[in-house]
Design a protein that fits this description.
The chain is an all-alpha fold and about 240 residues long. The chain is built from 9 helices and no strands. It has one domain.
């Protein structure tokens, strides 16, 4: 009887810790998306987007974004929490600059509509990742292979310029990033359950930043894939 009560108490404590950690992750994700959205909108509204698009600086920004993600992922265990926060915020700003281009290609109403569709799909998969008892590790590995395939096919299609391949990549991309959302949510939930909340403020902050970055990337990429289907062209 006592052992059963103790196990219930431990399970409740783990669930509470997981909920607190997930809340921190979602807060940072929301901050990142908010920064990106504001920067993208005002960059487009000010006319800076047209200048960036016609400048080699656009490609420099893309390379800088990739470098920041790789650096943050590789060095998260060694850098300060404040550095991780600054890198995540900086990445959100740079992504806002490059994503401002969508306002040149699509109408504002279709961008807003696609954003809400993305939010609905993301929310549904997030809930699934939180409540399912199924281990999604296998799904995560499969989706990661799909992601590699999408990246390779996207590079190839730069030269082929095939509309059929373009739509196939888009459809597969939607499936990949919805699957990765559920997998990443479950992984973050387990981080909370396995004791990250007891590792100190610095570890919590860095863990939350990395979790937020994963979900941020899932959301942004899902949004961009869906925008290919639901975005209304300005032409």
């Amino acid at each position: 009887m006592y052992e059963q009560a103790r196990q219930i108490t431990i399970a409740q404590a783990r669930q509470e810790a997981s909920s607190i950690f997930l809340a921190k992750v979602f807060n940072w994700m929301a901050i990142g998306l908010g920064v990106t959205g504001v920067v993208a909108y005002f960059t487009a509204a000010s006319g800076l987007a047209q200048i960036l698009m016609a400048s080699p600086l656009f490609f420099v920004l893309i390379i800088a974004q990739l470098g920041m993600v790789f650096y943050l992922s590789a060095r998260i265990g060694k850098i300060q929490a404040s550095t991780a926060t600054a890198l995540f915020t900086g990445y959100s700003v740079l992504n806002g600059l490059t994503l401002s281009m969508i306002f040149l290609a699509y109408t504002s109403s279709s961008i807003a509509g696609t954003f809400f569709i993305t939010a609905g799909m993301f929310g549904a998969m997030a809930i699934y990742g939180m409540v399912t008892k199924r281990d999604l590790s296998g799904l995560g590995s499969f989706m990661f292979m799909g992601l590699i395939g999408v990246l390779i096919a996207s590079v190839v299609n730069i030269f082929l310029k095939s509309s059929s391949l373009y739509w196939a990549i888009s459809m597969i991309g939607v499936l990949v990033f919805t699957g990765l959302t559920a997998y990443d949510i479950q992984k973050i939930k387990r981080m909370g359950e396995e004791g990250i909340m007891a590792q100190g403020d610095s570890a919590i902050r860095k863990g939350a930043i990395m979790g937020a970055l994963a979900l941020y990337l899932d959301f942004i990429n899902l949004f961009l894939m869906l925008l290919r289907f639901f975005g209304g062209s300005r032409d």
